[in-house]
Recover the amino acids of this structure.
């Protein structure tokens, strides 16, 4: 079905309402339908190493449905009902996918980022009241098992830990060596409230047909955490209807049973779990997951194009940080099978967009989604005009409204007017987005549209543009970091009076955390001393600031709050000028302005440099630049 313009989306909506479409009610119904249509087609392939000829394990749709049925039966036998929670803390492997789907069939599944620290994992386990945790058996070169054991000690609701042994994916002699060097769990004997069992042994006891009645109506199937910084991260609730909506979009607009999708993204994130896997389950497309760490895995970038050739990939799923890494390697394989690359999680720099398309001949389609909306919201149309810098057209049955505050309350903005992006679609669980009721207060416009906290505008062609964030989250390579963790840590230092943390531009990760402080009168502390202090007191490694500036006085609002737009301008100026200097480009950022339509824009004095020279440096960043002279002339 065509997806080229806003009119195409409206035509789909006018065909029939979403409620009247012939969609399954539950995830198991959806999986059963596809397994019935394409039983011997490949569903998912996984290889523990990244080499283009390395061993891979492939499950057909029949095999995947059988294993999901076994997992669901196992979870039910272990006491999981429709409102009980199975959490998993895992890297990518076939068992991770089986746990995701089986957990959502038996009860509610809660994927947890294995890179989080034990206290953060424990807080999510407590908030979700998880009864079962699926994780790794201790394995060389990973501390996931050790972190989970520590977390479970502080999660009294957990009664069972199921261990997955990655050793089964290895071949001799490596598979012989692992048992000899496998690390031990120090605290396992202290977990009197949790039984440790083998995932593989327990699942093999179960029949391959569902031994209980599937749900008969829509219900909550997943809990996804939206961070993992200081304190308790928010937990979003996803219903079957939201999962099925994401799958319908992929099947209707993009994928068929003949497509192969490369997805080196983690199976604790909505991009992989909902956007890709639900679309694959709906369409029958084949998904390939290389290495436990995906894009972070050893050799993935070096072997990426050869893997594309091996699996005859038609769609690449990626993020800006990964695109940047790929552009540092030559395209050394036949990638003629690739139709499109999809990029999400963070804004894509224009220069990176152009470099990728020039090097590969493949178009990048940039989109927008968020955990709270069960992900998908919009994307640049595959078959229509792609406006670089925008996040495209809202999908069918998605209503985007831009609102602004007035003394009389929230009102909707006009075309091209910037305000807060609000989303209404089948993925929004209106009134109940978060597990904690108080976090849902004032979260919805007119009771139906999720207030995202993102700032944006809709242009005259119906394309959505994101111009900033009403909330202060730092997005590092798609990972959300709460600046409050950095600020609270710094305020614990006796010399610090005020602290402000923001995301500074980064050509690879999009943003990296940086901090600004104002010292107590008469106190002394250097930036290096405070950065060392952060190494100890900022508990999330990803949140540790990469740069710190001591100012005589932080910019503040009339009520004394740190004014972060000025800090962002300061950081943009510093980072951009450092990059220009390093590239021996004479251009310099003289100021940063806040444009109502485009957000923060660096004003650059060329000083004899050409546009091409400046773009080659600053095009790697997401924040735009313009000639200082052009702005002066416009005024």
């Amino acid at each position: 079905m065509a997806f080229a313009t806003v009119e195409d989306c409206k035509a789909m909506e006018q065909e029939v309402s979403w409620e009247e479409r012939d969609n399954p009610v539950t995830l198991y119904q959806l999986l059963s339908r596809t397994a019935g249509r394409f039983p011997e087609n490949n569903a998912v392939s996984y290889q523990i190493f990244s080499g283009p000829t390395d061993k891979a394990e492939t499950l057909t749709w029949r095999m995947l449905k059988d294993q999901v049925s076994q997992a669901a039966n196992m979870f039910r036998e272990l006491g999981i009902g429709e409102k009980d929670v199975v959490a998993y803390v895992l890297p990518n492997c076939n068992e991770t996918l089986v746990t995701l789907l089986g957990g959502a069939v038996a009860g509610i599944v809660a994927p947890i980022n294995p890179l989080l620290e034990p206290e953060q994992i424990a807080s999510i386990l407590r908030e979700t009241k998880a009864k079962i945790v699926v994780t790794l058996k201790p394995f060389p070169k990973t501390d996931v098992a050790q972190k989970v054991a520590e977390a479970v000690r502080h999660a009294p609701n957990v009664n069972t830990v199921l261990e997955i042994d990655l050793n089964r994916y290895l071949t001799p002699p490596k598979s012989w060596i692992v048992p000899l060097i496998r690390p031990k769990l120090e605290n396992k004997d202290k977990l009197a409230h949790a039984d440790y069992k083998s995932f593989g042994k327990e699942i093999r006891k179960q029949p391959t047909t569902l031994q209980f009645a599937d749900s008969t109506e829509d219900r909550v199937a997943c809990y996804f955490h939206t961070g993992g910084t200081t304190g308790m991260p928010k937990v979003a609730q996803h219903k079957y209807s939201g999962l099925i909506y994401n799958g319908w979009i992929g099947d209707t607009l993009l994928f068929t049973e003949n497509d192969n999708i490369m997805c080196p993204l983690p199976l604790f994130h909505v991009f992989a779990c909902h956007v890709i896997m639900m679309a694959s389950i709906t369409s029958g497309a084949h998904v390939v997951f290389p290495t436990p760490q995906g894009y972070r895995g050893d050799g993935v970038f070096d072997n990426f194009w050869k893997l594309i050739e091996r699996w005859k990939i038609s769609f690449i799923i990626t993020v800006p940080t990964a695109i940047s890494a790929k552009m540092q390697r030559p395209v050394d394989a036949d990638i003629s099978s690739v139709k499109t690359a999809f990029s999400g999680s963070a804004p894509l720099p224009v220069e990176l967009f152009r470099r990728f398309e020039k090097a590969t001949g493949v178009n990048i389609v940039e989109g927008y989604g968020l955990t709270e909306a069960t992900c998908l919201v919009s994307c640049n149309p595959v078959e229509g005009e792609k406006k670089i810098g925008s996040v495209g057209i809202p999908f069918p049955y998605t209503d985007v409204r831009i609102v602004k505050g007035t003394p009389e309350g929230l009102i909707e903005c006009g075309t091209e007017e910037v305000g807060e992006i609000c989303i209404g679609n089948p993925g929004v669980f209106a009134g109940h987005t978060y597990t904690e009721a108080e976090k849902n207060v004032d979260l919805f416009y007119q009771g139906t549209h999720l207030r995202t906290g993102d700032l944006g505008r809709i242009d005259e062609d119906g394309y959505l543009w994101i111009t900033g964030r009403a909330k202060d989250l730092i997005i590092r390579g798609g990972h959300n970091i709460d600046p409050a963790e950095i600020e609270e840590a710094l305020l614990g230092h006796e010399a610090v009076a005020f602290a402000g943390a923001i995301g500074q531009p980064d050509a690879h990760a999009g943003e990296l955390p940086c901090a600004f402080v104002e010292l107590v009168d008469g106190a002394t502390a250097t930036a290096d001393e405070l950065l060392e202090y952060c190494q100890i007191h900022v508990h999330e490694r990803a949140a540790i600031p990469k740069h710190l500036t001591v100012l005589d006085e932080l910019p503040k609002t009339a009520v004394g709050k740190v004014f972060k737009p000025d800090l962002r301008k300061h950081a943009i100026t510093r980072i951009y000028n450092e990059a220009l200097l390093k590239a021996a480009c004479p251009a310099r950022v003289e100021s940063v302005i806040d444009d109502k339509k485009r957000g923060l824009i660096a004003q650059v004095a060329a000083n004899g440099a050409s546009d091409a020279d400046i773009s080659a440096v600053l095009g790697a960043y997401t924040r735009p630049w313009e000639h200082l002279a052009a702005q002066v002339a416009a005024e």
